[in-house]
Design brief:
The complex is a heterodimer of chains A (112) and B (114).
Chain A: E1 10-14, E2 19-24, E3 32-38, E4 45-51, E5 56-58, E6 62-67, E7 72-77, E8 86-93, E9 101-102, E10 106-111
Parallel strand pairs in A: 1-10
Antiparallel strand pairs in A: 2-7, 3-4, 3-8, 5-6, 6-7, 8-9, 8-10
Chain B: E1 5-7, E2 10-13, E3 19-24, E4 31-38, E5 42-50, E6 53-56, E7 65-71, E8 74-79, E9 88-96, E10 99-105, E11 109-113
Parallel strand pairs in B: 2-11
Antiparallel strand pairs in B: 1-3, 3-8, 4-5, 4-9, 5-6, 7-8, 9-10, 9-11
The chains are: A mainly beta (112), B mainly beta (114).
Chain lengths: 112, 114
């Protein structure tokens, strides 16, 4: 289950740092956004979601920010750990949760 | 629950052969999705089912691709005949009507068509 590989943007951080992963989405009519994490050899795993009527949502160690004006989504990971190393995808949907459109992904590398 | 189960995990075949990928969704889930992941196109939705009925197959690339869901616990994605450009990782995912926002993905089937 390796994700899109060679030309993925990569974010390298030290363990304990905060990470910010950005995503530009394409459809101004999208009303639902999700972040997925994909570890090497595995399928994507749901992290957190946000609806278009919100601009911020917090989970455990993660925060998603939505800026509809510029069609931008970000995922903030606090106190990044080596286990957070993976490819992170944003996805958008409109009029329901089923037809997700995924972004190209960002590789996060966390060094100890 | 064991999660979404896919088989085989790896498949190598020759161009022109028929390929069948299998998926067992999480028990009790109402939605089932088939995705394809490639380096060039990323992760794409091919088709999804609700209560075993295909709802949207607009992502299916060609008539060579077909998907079925004969019952709530089993789905297949078939490619006939296969071509080298079909080489990709194919994921199955499922979700519950009570938590539709969360799709649970299987481990994927890595397909290589020679």
């Amino acid at each position: 289950g390796e994700s899109v590989g060679l030309h993925l943007p990569t974010l390298s951080v030290q363990e304990g740092d905060n990470s910010i992963i950005n995503c530009a989405y394409s459809n101004s009519a999208s009303d639902y956004f999700i972040w997925y994490k994909q570890e090497s050899g595995k399928g994507p795993q749901f992290i957190i979601d946000i609806r278009s009527n919100m601009d911020k949502r917090q989970g455990q160690r993660v925060t998603v920010l939505l800026n509809k004006t510029v069609k931008h989504l970000s995922l903030q990971i606090a106190a990044t750990q080596p286990g957070d190393s993976a490819v992170y995808f944003c996805a958008e949907a409109m009029g329901g949760f089923q037809k997700l459109v995924f972004g190209t992904g960002t590789r996060l590398l966390v060094s100890p | 629950d064991a999660g979404v189960i896919q088989s085989p995990r790896h498949e190598v075949t020759e161009m022109g052969q028929e390929v069948t990928l299998r998926c067992k969704p999480i028990s009790g889930h109402d939605y089932l999705f088939w995705y394809r992941q490639t380096m060039m196109r990323g992760l794409e939705l091919l088709i999804y089912f609700n209560n075993n009925v295909p709802i949207d197959d607009s992502g299916m690339p060609e008539d060579r691709f077909s998907a079925k869901m004969p019952n709530a616990s089993f789905s297949t994605l078939k490619i006939q005949p296969s071509e080298p450009r079909d080489s990709a990782v194919y994921f199955c995912a499922s979700s519950s009507v009570w938590a539709q926002e969360t799709q649970y993905f299987g481990p994927g089937t890595r397909l290589l068509v020679l």
